[in-house]
Every structure is written in C-alpha cells, then in structure tokens.
Fold this sequence. Notes:
Blueprint lengths: L2 H20 L4 H10 L4 H11 L1 H10 L1 H4 L3 H24 L2 H32 L6 H17 L4 H12 L4 H26 L4 H21 L5 H21 L1
Helix pairs in contact: 1-2, 1-4, 1-11, 2-3, 2-12, 3-10, 3-11, 4-10, 4-11, 6-8, 6-10, 7-9, 7-12, 8-9, 8-10, 9-10
Amino acid sequence: MTVWEAIAVVIAGVFAGGINTVVGSGTLVTFPVLLAVGYPPVVANVSNSLGLVPGSLSGAWGYREELKGQKSRIARLLPASILGGIVGAILLVTLPDKAFTAIVPVLIVIALVLVVIQPWLNRKLAHRRSHNDGGVLLWIGVFAAGIYGGYFGAAQGVLVMGLMGVLVAEHLQRLNAVKNLLTAFVNLVAGVMFIFIADVAWLAVALLAAGSVVGGQIGAKIGRKLPPAVLRGVIVVVGVAAIVQLLMK
C-alpha cells in the first residue's frame, strides 16, 4: 500500500465512522476503497469489519446520553445481535469465495435501496410505531440483521432502525443510540472471530480504526445536522463502484 492509498483508507474510515453513527452504511464507503487498493473481496470484508469496530464503539459512546434509561431494551436485544453476528461470520468464512463475490453485489443493491428510501421509510415509520417494545418479532429481526451484519454489514444500521421504528414507540434519536450499540457489537464479535478463522489485512484494519474513531465522534456530535441527502448520494456512488469492482474481478 502506498502512502496515498493509506491516506485514502484513513479518510474512508473517518467518513464511514460518521456515516455509521448517523445513517448506518459506512461499509459502502470503506469496502470499495479496500478493493481499489488491491485487497481480495473476502479479505477486504473481514478487515473492514474489524477496522470499523472502534468507530462503532466511538459512535455509541458519543450517543451515551440517549442510551440512558434503555438498559432493559439493550439487555434484551444485545444477545440477538451477538448471536446473529457469530452466525454471519461463520457463513462468511465457510461459504466459498465465489459465493461471497456473487452474493455481495446483491446485498449492496439491497443496501443502496434501503439508503435511498430511508427518508420515505422514516416518514412512514413515524405513523406506524406500536405502543410496545417490539416483542419476539423485534428480537428475531435484530438477530437476522446481525447475521447480515456479520456476513457483510452495509446498511445493517438502516435495517435495525427500520425494525425498531416500526415496532417500538420511542424517539428516533434514542433508537439510533441503541442501533449504534447493537451494530458495534455485531462488528465486534464478528471481528474477534475473524482474527482466529480468517485472513486479516492488519495494516488496513489499523488505518480504518484510526479514521473511524474520529468519524464516530464527528457523527455523534453533528447528528441530524449532517445533510443526509448528500450522504446518501455519496453512498450510492461508492456502492455502485463496489459492484463494478466485484463484477470485474
């Protein structure tokens, strides 16, 4: 990796840390960059998951005020995220590389659609939230989102926010705080597993980690003041670039 490539990875990490805290699609920025600097798809994905863990935890810490009073909700949903992340990580390293290359473009398309429709989805969710705490349906949904996150993860946060927005009567900023914590633990448990069962590009991990910690704090401070339309536009561009990169391999 050249110096300029290393700088690009750090910048991508900063951007991803901020996006993950506010929107939840940072992988669509970092994954294409890792592909562009020459890492194979599975190695790039594994290293990306590990590298973004500090940024996710940084974003969760930045939202610590919104987490107050939600211990019971977190205690109930966190096991679902952790178990899902473990299953997703196992799928990533047990399925053949060709399966990942074939599946991920589809996952990226789904993630891009979710990112694009998020404003419309949020408006709909504001009128459809129930008066309970999600029950078993939310637990299963968070578990499924954890599997997705452990396997690839782009727009995992959008999935979790969509589920909680439909099923939980709570302010969206407080739900976003829970989302940050749940997705952080999905990345963490998947990342720990990858250390022992997969090939990791440690330089990429270190560069992403440094950038994402800064980005997580920026995202937490700015919050909804960030122009979401611009963020979504950039995410779509880099997501399409990732699809092109994969299909050309």
